[in-house]
Amino acid sequence: MGLTPQQRSNKLDRWKSPPSPAEEARLARARRMVTNAVKQHPPFAGLGLVVEPKGSWANNTNVSSDSDMDIKVEFTQRAFQGSTVGMSYWDLLLQNNSYNGPWTPEKFRSELGIALRRVSNSVDASNNVAFYVPSVPGSRPDTDAVPCFTYLHKPAFGPPNRGTVVFTNDGKHIVNWSQQQLDNGREKNARTGYRYKFAVRALKSVENDLVALGVIKNVPSYFMECLIYNVPDPTLKNALSLDLAFQAALMYLKGQFNFWSFSANPDAMVEPNGIKKLFAPGQKWTKDDARQLVTAAWDYLGYGVPR
Fold first, then answer.
1. How far apart are the first and last CA of the chain?
2. pTM across the whole model
3. Could you give the CA distance from residue 191 to residue 274 in angstroms, rounded to a whole number?
4. Which of 113, 115, 149, 169 is the most buried (most CB within 10 A)?
């Protein structure tokens, strides 16, 4: 059974709020922990590493004080380049063979692990992508420190796109465009009368409820941001209330994943960075995940149900 209008209104009222000052302070302490680890590690002296938050904390779309935080540690003095989604085996081989310096991805990851262990005794290096540093209750959240290198994509026309590339423990690599995601999210938020990030937080919160109820399986929180990013600006901006704006967003997404809709075009959807296709091969989600999520969210919130 879906929520009543009053129950839905109460939840949306809670979900609309951005992180509190206390949550922002937790973020600052986590970033300071990683920054100090990098600054105090002698092998990193003079390298000019960039330490910055990314993901939901940086984009102001996290939904609770106990959510974890991603911080990139970017090696900027060595850059890789390739397509928007990554490098072929031969491209990577050629770039590695042309580099004569000491900073291989393996060495950089190893040294970052050593640096983090000097400021925390509980660093977990077993994850495929990031070093996990557990939270300190009342101080800072769980933190994922991501070692990465500068990455460039040079399109046929226009300036190169600058992102980062992470070399994972399983021998693969992942390209991220976090600055583009941050910039595009801020611009869309302004264009929609600051409803974009509200809708992202709301959909993340709905997904949390639906997973806890066993209605759907868990999907990455970034996926919810991606879905809302593809909702047209007027759909979010022109509604008379936040409730109606979120209802309109879900209605639009339901139409995009309707098998019988002639106007649906989910293959044209992009990530908030505006560079990668949302449903490109290798993503951690599918169109079926999206269809199940938005349908369950619509039913759970009681939209369209006579009262």
1. 12
2. 0.90
3. 16
4. 115
Q: For each of the domains in the chain, give its residue range(s) and CATH number, in order of start.
A: 19-176 (3.30.460.10), 182-300 (no CATH)
pLDDT of residue 196: 96
Strand partners, 70: 54, 144
- Residue-wise pLDDT for 40-87, tens only, equals 999 999 998 999 988 776 777 777 654 678 999 999 999 999 999 999
CA angle centred on 195, ends 190 and 196, rounded to 5°: 75
| pLDDT confidence tier of residue 307, bands split at 50, 70 and 90 | very low
Alpha carbon distance 194, 98 (integer Å): 47
* Both tokens assigned to 275: 């560079």
d(CA 104, CA 152): 17
Of 27, 59, 304, 46, which is closest to residue 185 (Cα–Cα)?
Answer: 59
Q: Count other C-beta atoms under 10 Å from residue 113's C-beta.
A: 16
